[in-house]
Design brief:
The chain has about 500 residues and is an alpha/beta fold. The chain has a domain at about 90-110 and about 230-460: 3-Layer(aba) Sandwich (Rossmann fold), CATH 3.40.50. The chain has helices at about 15-25, 45-50, 50-60, 70-80, 110-115, 120-130, 145-155, 175-180, 195-205, 210-220, 230-250, 270-280, 295-305, 330-335, 340-355, 360-365, 375-390, 395-415, 430-440, 445-460, 465, 485-495, and strands at about 5, 10-15, 30-35, 90-95, 100, 135-140, 160-165, 185-195, 220-225, 260-265, 285-290, 305-310, 355-360, 370-375, 420-425, 480. The strands form four sheets. The protein has a six-stranded mixed beta sheet, with helices on both faces. A five-stranded parallel beta sheet has the order 9-6-7-8-16, with helices on both faces. β6 (about 135-140), α7 and β7 form a beta-alpha-beta unit. The longest helix is centred in the middle third of the chain and has 20 residues, at about 230-250.
Length: about 500
């Protein structure tokens, strides 16, 4: 039974899974969604006996139905291998009454590796299936983590090239160094003088530019996306929530059927949307706690039913969440509108023209599974220090936002449901912010001195991802104004 996908803005625009992965974005600017969310067809008892790779197959086969078993298993095998520094791929540790799902053991030490390790294989398989002869140009905007994970995934992958845009002064020094030292003949990295929303808007504008698409096609190119708007990014993320639940059962922490809550530090809304899809597949998730930093556009949305991006953009110590337009929220809006593409298109048009939209009371009632929370900068730092003092466990700033929100949620509600917190990045990615939170005396040290100090403090070996950029030369130094993004792409591609 082939699962089909349609645009959130027009039900008539349909695609197979492989076509949706290839396109990235629907032609009307909408996002591809499955026409039905499939139910899990393996029991939790069965899943509990499986490896991460086996669970990945059981989940992904339900969404990517036009791949053969051999094709999909080959993609999974090539993605989840020795690139990860733990055999479990996504280990879970219990600290201070919650379960931290560590999603940062891949090549670039952030949760984006979970999906971006497999996306290049899904994409090249999809291209063969659809007889694509053009070179696929991956065009991506990043708030810090997607960029490096996508660059690492696509570097020197035949038939592809990748261009990543990032806010020049809006990522951590380690995040920037990871990107601008990236090897690969097919990789390009561009800093923009603007914020992540400017980068994301510029990328979307290029995807929606028909005249540019025609010129590219004549030159033998076509765009695709590695951003979380691509369904090939979202589906692999569903896997780790199913895996986490099966591990809690396997380890005797819960019984089959017992509920669990999830807390997810949220920027572009893809990671928490994956948990929502897992819930809709039959996983007994009770509450989905959406954790924001000072850019609390999502917190306000869940409180009021109004999404309003017209506000100050705040640079924080959790930069991957410094986002005011959460693209993947569109998929949730479509679902809570009763899969009404016309209604969804109207709301997205309002966001585009006025920067604000209001959902109906009925739609708001469909958000009952979600809880919004946020922590300010001081609380984030306090949470890092308190966890280190109590457990000797060092977490990154994004995970700390989630932990701070979780503590506030429990204090307010008394809800003691077993809770999985998505730990989305290694503390090594944000050493200065993390070390300053533990003790301000570290602020006088250089970035790599801090890395060594963090290793001593945490007892965790410095990851390869950090070691390899210590002395790596800068290979990418292009910077452009946000309005010159298209001209920069045209120059890179020689159009």
């Amino acid at each position: 039974m082939n699962l089909m996908y349609n645009s959130t803005r027009n039900k008539q625009e349909t695609a197979t899974a492989s076509q949706a992965i290839l396109q990235g974005l629907a032609t009307d600017g909408g996002l591809f969604v499955p026409n039905a969310i499939p139910a899990l067809d393996k029991s939790v008892e069965e899943l509990a006996k499986m490896s991460y790779q086996e669970v990945a197959y059981e989940v992904m086969k339900l969404y990517i139905t036009d791949f053969t078993e051999e094709e999909l298993k080959n993609c999974i095998k090539r993605a989840y291998d020795s690139k990860f520094d733990t055999t479990e791929i996504a280990p879970m540790v219990k600290k201070d009454g919650a379960y931290y799902l560590e999603l940062f053991h891949g090549a670039t030490i952030a949760f984006k590796d979970m999906a971006l390790s497999i996306l290049p294989h899904l994409l090249t398989t999809a291209a063969k299936k659809n007889n694509v002869k053009n070179e696929i140009v991956i065009l991506t905007a990043t708030s810090g983590d997607t960029g490096k994970a996508a660059l690492a995934g696509f570097a020197d992958v035949e038939g592809t090239s990748i261009i990543v845009f990032y806010p020049k002064n809006g990522v951590s020094p380690i995040q920037e160094k990871q990107m601008i030292t990236q090897k690969g003949a097919n990789t390009k990295v561009v800093g923009i003088t603007g914020n992540f929303d400017d980068a994301q808007s510029g990328v979307k504008a290029m995807f929606n530019n028909k005249e540019l698409a025609e010129r590219m096609d004549k030159a033998g190119y076509q765009f695709s996306s590695a951003n979380s708007i691509n369904i090939g990014r979202l589906v692999p993320q569903i896997v780790y929530y199913v895996y986490a639940y099966s591990r809690l059962v396997k380890n005797g922490e819960i019984k089959v059927g017992d509920p669990m809550n999830v807390v997810v530090p949220t920027g572009n809304f893809g990671n928490i949307l994956a948990a929502y899809y897992a819930k809709n597949m039959g996983l007994p998730i009770n509450k989905l706690v959406c954790a924001s930093n000072d850019n609390k556009v999502l917190y306000d949305f869940f409180q009021t039913g109004t999404y309003d991006k017209n506000r100050e953009f705040i640079l924080t110590t959790s930069p991957s969440m410094d986002i005011l337009i959460s693209s993947n929220l569109e998929r949730l809006i479509y679902k809570i509108a009763g899969n009404d593409a016309e209604k969804c298109a109207d709301l997205m048009q309002a966001l585009s023209t006025k920067g604000v939209y209001n959902i109906t009371p009925d739609m708001q009632a469909n958000l009952a599974d979600f809880v919004g929370g946020y922590t300010d900068e001081a609380t984030t730092a306090k949470t890092i220090k308190a966890m280190y003092d109590k457990e000797g466990y060092v977490m990154d700033t994004h995970t700390a936002v989630a932990a701070g929100v979780y503590q506030g949620y429990v204090a307010k509600t008394g809800d003691k449901t077993p809770t999985v917190i998505a730990s989305t990045a290694s503390p090594y990615k944000f050493t200065r912010s993390v070390m300053n939170a533990i003790d301000s005396k570290y602020d006088s040290m250089g970035d790599f001195e801090l890395v060594d100090e963090l290793s001593k403090l945490s007892g965790v070996k410095v990851p390869n991802a950090i070691e390899e950029i210590r002395t790596a030369p800068v290979l990418h130094d292009i910077v452009c104004e946000s309005e010159k993004m298209q001209a920069t792409v045209e120059k890179i591609l020689g159009l």
